[in-house]
Design a protein that fits this description.
Layout: E1 4-8, H1 15-20, E2 23-26, E3 29-32, E4 35-38, H2 45-54, E5 60-62, H3 66-76, E6 82-87, H4 95-105, E7 111-116, H5 121-136, H6 141-151, E8 155-160, H7 165-169, H8 175-184, E9 186-193, E10 196-204, H9 206-218, E11 223-230, H10 234-244, E12 253-257, H11 260-266, E13 271-277
Length: 292
């Protein structure tokens, strides 16, 4: 039987893609005061971003309960005896831990492998999609796990945020950094390194930030998968896609929208890029060339 793939809503996989590839998506929770929503299920992106930008208090996020994972695993175990569950970096969320606890509680006779992607958003999304395509080709669970584990260090996720305000309010950066960003009107380029958010550089002005995203993609060789996403900047995302088509086939660039979980911290007008490089042999992982 085909290996089944599970991920979580932070993967920001478009619903139609998840449906076609039969990827089970477990939603994280968004809390506006006493109100709780399931990311991408009981609150739309439009409604979430409207409330994010108009309500005085930042929403909070939380991982799915372990019991939710148990239910998903046991449901899928009626269709398969092999499941791979790939999740947002354990350094950013308790979701991976919750999935491990959910696996322990599952009683179905099904082999379940839980993988920490050390990534987020469309970086995680590309890995889950890769796993699902391997599964559809008939790959075994061992083959899928081996491939995804090897692809994780070759997966890169980065982007530009319009303001550091949401990262600051969410407790992800200090006040001094937030103030500096607002005073200088800089556009911070952020990425993930070893599963943790880190600043790449600061660029003055939106257009320069846009150009740097393109330069960074150009700096990677052997790209096998490429995705772009936005929070509330769809037109700009489409412009980015047009620019990146010189480096990667336009019809294979995955386009998505960051859901409520990541949107809570990234804020409006964020643009993100994720890519997976093909295996570059045994040599060191090349860093992107930084143009100046």
């Amino acid at each position: 039987m085909t290996v089944r793939v599970v991920t979580d809503s932070t993967a920001d996989i478009p619903a139609d893609v998840a449906e076609v590839l039969d990827i089970a998506v477990v939603p994280l929770h968004i809390h506006f005061g006493e109100e709780t929503y399931e990311d991408g299920v009981t609150i739309t992106s439009e409604e979430f971003y409207r409330r994010l930008t108009t309500e005085p208090h930042l929403p909070k996020t939380s991982a799915p309960a372990s019991g939710t994972f148990t239910e998903v695993y046991e449901r899928l175990a009626r269709e398969t005896d092999e499941i791979v569950s790939i999740h947002i970096s354990s350094k950013l969320s308790a979701t991976h831990s919750s999935a491990l606890l959910g696996r322990e509680a599952a009683t179905a006779s099904c082999r379940i492998e839980v993988i920490d992607s050390y990534s987020a958003s469309i970086g995680l999304g590309l890995l889950a999609i890769r796993a699902a395509r391997l599964a559809r080709e008939g790959a075994s669970l061992d083959t899928v796990v081996q491939d995804i584990t090897a692809a994780i260090p070759r997966t890169h996720y980065f982007g530009v945020v319009d303001t550091l305000e949401y990262l600051h309010k969410g407790g992800r950066i200090g006040m001094a950094t937030a103030l500096l960003g607002s005073i200088l009107k800089v556009k911070p380029l952020l990425g993930l390194r070893d599963g943790v958010a880190h600043p790449i550089e600061r660029v003055r002005g939106r257009q320069k930030a846009f150009d740097r995203l393109c330069e960074m993609v150009a700096g990677y060789s052997g790209i096998s998968s490429l995705a772009i996403a936005h929070t509330t900047a769809e037109e700009e995302m489409e412009r980015l896609g047009a620019r990146l088509a010189q480096f990667f086939p336009a019809d294979r660039i995955l386009r998505s929208r960051c859901g409520a979980t990541l949107g809570t911290y990234l804020g409006p007008n964020t643009l993100c890029v994720a890519l997976i490089r093909e295996d570059a042999g045994n040599g060191p992982t090349p860093e992107p060339r930084h143009a100046h």
